[in-house]
Every structure is written in structure tokens, then in C-alpha cells.
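in:
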């Protein structure tokens, strides 16, 4: 019973902090700045009952209901910001090309900084590195960054590397948006390193992962949810504020200020959500690195000693999960453990056990 209560409280806490709390903030702004104008409109007078509860009760009830609705819609809300939903193909292709160029530009800038610093400190460079440094200094794409980059300190160089790490390793995994790339980089981590597709085997991985890793993933996910809920709530507040300007008794100044501030804060929350994915990425990386062995044991498989064999094993596991049983479904036989950890140990039973010393 204690474990059930603990699990329920953990899930409720993520829902409360990730969706209900930011919804309460947005609803509070709406009630203070927009509702005094909206309630004077003919539509509100005909649909809203006269005897409304107190503002506090209305805020609490509305935050819970709207927070639950946003939570139920979290998948399409994320997909829209990641560039998977409602994006036309021409815009998707254009933005993907932009982010591929931006990723490679960051890689070249980072290489230029490292080689230039080594050359400035008198560290000998190989002939290939010298040619590479000369080519980077002559690269037209780097001209406007070259002066500032070569003066960067260690912390600034680390921040540049942090931006680069928010892109997927494989250019074919690039998405049209920053948030999509920041999330896609850890979605592809297991497949890129071990051919373990975390998107397919997510439930299996989390089922056997250590409790601290699962809690870390949930907490990191909640941080991103918080900013996503703020972002969408601000957009709704701005839209209602602009729509309320058409009312006869509209308070123009407060409505304009509310809409302007909400729209200006929207990209701030978006960037905060992108930055918050760093913790999410590190927790998923820990899940893959520490959960592969328990997952293999739970599936009755022996984790190979070589990385290449392990990649073949996880490829077979993924295919078995996605495809119906067929001719290649016996590919896992080569990786099956000689003993099933779930079966009882019968080696010390029977007449032979009585004769053993």
C-alpha cells in the first residue's frame, strides 16, 4: 500500500507542477486583466451564470480542469512545437536544412576555437591540423564569428559545445525546431550507441530501471512540461486579450499590455523549455547506460561482451517488438541466456542433492 501511495503521489506531483501550477498562473492573469472586459460582452452575459463562486474557488477549479485537459493533450502539444504536427512539407524541409547548417556551423566554430587556442599557446599541430586551421580561418561562414570565437574563454567555449550537443548526432534525425532537435538527441541516443531503440522499448526499460533513474527522468520531464504549459497558456491569454479589444466596454490599455507581455514572454518560455531538456537528456542517457543489463536479464538474454554483438542483439529485440513472427524471429536465439533468471533453481533438489557434500 505504501508503494502504491508513493507512486500515486509522485505522478500527482508531476501533474501538479508540470501542468496545473502554470495553468493557475495563466488563469490568474486572465481573471485579473481580461475577465473584467469579457464578462461585459453579450456572449458572456448569455452563457455565464450570474451567481459565480468566489474568485479563489474559480481559480482553483479552473486550474485543475484546464491543467488536466492540457495534460491529456500533451502529445499533440509537444508534437506541434517539435515540428511533427501541422507543419507543411516545404516548411519542414526548409527548417531542417537551416538546422543542419546551424549544427555544422557550430562544429566548425568549435574546431576553430580549439585549434586556434592550441596554436596560440605554442602547442605543435600536425600538418593535417594546420591545414584544417587555415581552411577554417578562410571559411566565409566563420568570418563574422571568428574574432569573437577566438577570444572566448573556457566557460564560453563550453556553452558553445552545449548548443552543439542539443542537436542529434545523425543529420537524418534533424527536426524543424530547436525543441524537436533537443528532444530528438536523447531519443536517438540508445539507437546511435547500442541500436537500442528507446522509443520502442521505453516501457520495458523503465520497468527494470533503478528507482533513482526513473525519478530523475520524471523530474526532468516535469521541468519541460512546466514551460510548455506556460507557453501555451500565454498564447491563449494573449489571444483572448486581443479578442476582448472588440468589446464595447474594453479596457484598451490593460488588454494591450497583457497581450504584448504574454507574446514577448512566449519565446522566453520556449528557450527555457529547450534548456530544460538538458536534464531530461542526461537522465535518459543514464537510463540507457544503466538499464541495458537489467533489461537483457529480464528478457532472458545474455549481454554480449562486444559492442558490435550487443548492437546486433538490440536490433533483433527491436525488430521482434515491431514485426510479426516470421523467418527472422529466431535471431535472438544466439543471445539467449543459458539459465532463465525467473525460473526456480532446481540444481540442489532430488536424490542427487542428498548425496552432495
Amino acid at each position: 500500500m505504501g508503494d502504491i501511495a508513493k507512486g500515486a503521489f509522485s505522478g500527482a506531483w508531476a501533474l501538479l507542477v508540470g501542468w496545473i501550477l502554470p495553468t493557475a498562473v495563466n488563469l490568474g492573469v486572465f481573471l485579473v486583466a481580461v475577465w473584467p472586459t469579457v464578462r461585459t460582452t453579450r456572449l458572456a452575459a448569455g452563457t455565464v451564470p450570474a451567481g459565480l463562486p468566489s474568485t479563489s474557488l474559480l481559480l482553483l477549479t479552473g486550474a485543475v480542469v484546464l491543467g488536466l485537459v492540457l495534460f491529456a493533450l500533451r502529445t499533440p502539444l509537444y508534437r506541434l512545437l517539435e515540428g511533427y504536427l501541422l507543419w507543411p512539407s516545404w516548411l519542414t524541409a526548409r527548417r531542417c536544412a537551416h538546422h543542419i547548417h546551424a549544427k555544422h556551423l557550430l562544429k566548425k566554430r568549435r574546431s576553430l576555437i580549439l585549434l586556434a587556442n592550441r596554436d596560440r599557446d605554442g602547442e605543435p599541430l600536425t600538418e593535417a591540423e594546420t591545414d584544417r586551421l587555415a581552411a577554417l580561418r578562410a571559411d566565409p561562414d566563420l568570418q563574422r564569428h571568428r574574432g569573437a570565437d577566438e577570444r572566448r574563454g573556457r566557460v564560453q567555449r563550453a556553452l558553445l559545445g552545449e548548443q552543439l550537443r542539443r542537436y542529434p548526432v545523425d543529420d537524418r534525425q534533424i527536426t524543424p525546431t530547436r525543441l524537436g532537435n533537443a528532444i530528438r538527441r536523447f531519443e536517438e541516443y540508445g539507437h546511435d550507441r547500442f541500436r537500442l531503440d528507446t522509443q520502442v522499448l521505453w516501457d520495458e526499460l523503465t520497468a527494470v530501471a533503478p528507482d533513482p533513474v526513473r525519478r530523475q527522468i520524471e523530474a526532468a520531464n516535469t521541468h519541460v512540461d512546466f514551460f510548455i504549459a506556460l507557453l501555451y497558456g500565454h498564447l491563449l491569454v494573449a489571444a483572448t486579450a486581443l479578442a476582448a479589444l472588440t468589446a464595447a466596454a474594453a479596457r484598451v490599455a490593460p488588454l494591450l499590455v497583457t497581450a504584448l507581455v504574454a507574446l514577448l514572454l512566449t519565446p522566453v518560455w520556449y528557450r527555457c523549455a529547450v534548456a530544460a531538456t538538458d536534464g531530461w537528456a542526461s537522465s535518459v542517457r543514464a537510463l540507457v547506460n544503466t538499464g541495458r543489463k537489467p533489461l537483457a536479464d529480464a528478457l532472458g538474454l545474455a549481454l554480449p561482451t562486444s559492442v558490435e554483438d550487443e548492437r546486433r542483439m538490440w536490433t533483433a529485440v527491436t525488430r521482434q517488438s515491431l514485426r510479426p513472427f516470421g523467418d527472422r524471429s529466431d535471431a535472438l536465439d544466439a543471445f539467449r541466456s543459458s539459465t532463465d533468471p525467473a525460473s526456480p533453481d532446481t540444481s540442489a533438489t532430488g536424490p542427487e542433492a542428498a548425496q552432495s557434500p
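note: The CA atoms of residues 320 and 329 lie 6 Å apart.
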